[in-house]
Amino acid sequence: MKRTYHAVIQEHLEKYEQMIFLSGPRQVGKTTLALSLQNATESFLYLNWDDIEDRQRIFQGSSAILSGLKLNKLGQKKPIIVFDEIHKYTKWRNYLKGIYDHHKQDIQIIVTGSSRLNAYRRGGDSLMGRYFLYRIHPLSVGELLSTKLENEVIVKPAELSKDAYESLFKFGGFPEPFLKNESRFYNRWQDLRHQQLLKDDLREISEVQELAQLEVLSVLIAEQAGQLCNFSQFSKKVRVQDTTIRRWIKILEELYYCFKIKPWSRNVTRSLLKQPKLYLWDWSRVSDSGSRVENFVATHLHKAVDYWTDTGIGKYELFYLRDKDKREVDFLVSQNGVPWMLIEVKASSNESLSKSLHHFADQLNPKYTFQLAFDMPYMDFDIRKLTKPMIVPMSTFLSQLP
Fold first, then answer.
1. 3-state secondary structure of 401
2. C-alpha–C-alpha distance, residues 83 and 355, integer Å
3. CB 374 within 8 A of CB 394
4. In terms of Cα–Cα distance, which of 2, 357, 303 is closest to 175?
């Protein structure tokens, strides 16, 4: 299926000479996206580090890689070289730097990675300024509605079919299980992917030996998605040191199993300063229905702030709000360092507007303040027109994000 990122990468190829780094979870569609660009140029080369013949060609150096490509042909688009999973090579950064510095006028380079590419910075010259990073996320409501390249931060509302919306919530946003839309396939796919993540991928970026205990931690994170992260409680349940828990969570973040949201503390009286919250990249693994609804929104917002930032629209970040009086709002989106949007998530539209939402809206004066209701039917209304805190359908809100 065509993704929004296809248009993003096409625009990059037309405008910029920097390398393209595509980073994201296993099976989110990075390789498919890279291979879909074969028709964008007359000359295309795909090299996979996990393929022994491709690896030998990489070791032979730039002359072996460039041989066979149509270079220096007037009127021709630059050849594209895709390096898939090359970050597993310990000297990959210097290797790419050498090729880029000598041939950036002649070729386009795309690098893909199923772990965070910056997790592999093990010395050598920096690639700073030589690449643009695009973080590839699972499918979202907005992407299912449109794959056009949008320069607006919030787009016009549109209605996703009820069946597609329910399938996305149930099976998650990874393309294969969503498109299959079948519980038996989903269960088998999940088991296989989870084992690959916590065994194969884990071994590639760390030397963790206690795989069974780390898997217990991953289950605990899923069970407590959206709650304040209590490292000492995790430590007691997994039976390892607090420092080990922090290190393992960082590894799980690098593997795109979970992501962290920190509290916003600026201009908030008696704010909570340290404890983060953890959410899963794959909300379908969250069994509690209320927690899954919150994780569903968290993942959509996470995708939106990365998209807005990566495409140069602005600097966007995702936080939550909580003070020492236990007033809390689920999410705050900042725009260029300033509170821009407050979002509270509720399963039911029967719940009244949150007093905490009003409290923090008065303190921070964001441009937008919403309480999202999961069970509220879609309304064809542009949320950008709202000038005060309001309860809105979750489906309407999510349709206006990328």
1. coil
2. 51
3. yes
4. 2
Tally of helices (H runs) and strands (E runs) in the chain: 16, 12
> What are the tokens at 28?
């989110």
Structure confidence by residue, pLDDT tens digits, 120-159: 444 445 788 999 999 999 999 999 999 998 888 999 999 9
Tokens 């629209």 belong to which residue? Answer: 313
Give the closest residue to 98 by CA, choosing from 65, 140, 54, 52: 65
Per residue in 34-71, pLDDT tens? 999 998 888 999 999 999 999 999 999 989 999 888 77
The band of 73, judged by pLDDT with boundaries at 50, 70 and 90, is low
* Cβ count near 157 (within 10 Å): 21
pLDDT of residue 271: 64
| Complete domains list, the chain, with CATH | 4-135 (3.40.50.300), 141-399 (no CATH)
For tokens 């998605």, name the residue: 225
Pairing of strands 277-280, 368-373: unpaired
Q: What is the mean pLDDT of residues 237-250?
A: 94
Task: Please state, in angstroms and as integers, the Cα–Cα distance from residue 78 to each residue in 64, 72, 112, 360, 389, following that order.
Answer: 18, 9, 19, 51, 50
pTM equals 0.94
Q: Is 110 helix (H, G, I), strand (E, B) or coil?
A: strand
Instruction: Count Cβ neighbours within 10 Å for each residue of 293-326 and write b for 16 or more, e otherwise.
Output: bbbbbbbbbbbbbbbbebbeeeebbbbbbbbeee
CB environment 96-130: b (16+ within 10 A), e (fewer)? bbebbeebeeebbbbbbbbbbbebbeeeeeebeeb
Tokens of 399: 């349709």
> Which amino acid would we find at residue 16?
Y
Q: What is the mean pLDDT of the chain?
A: 92
Pairing status of strand 277-280 against strand 258-263: antiparallel
Query: What pLDDT shows up at residue 395?
Result: 98
Give the Cβ contact number of residue 355 at 10 Å.
9
* String of DSSP letters for 164-214: HHHHHHHH-S-HHHHHH--HHHHHHHHHHHHHIIIIIIHHHH-----HHHH
Strand order across the beta sheet in which 368-373 lies: 277-280, 258-263, 316-322, 328-335, 338-346, 368-373, 390-393
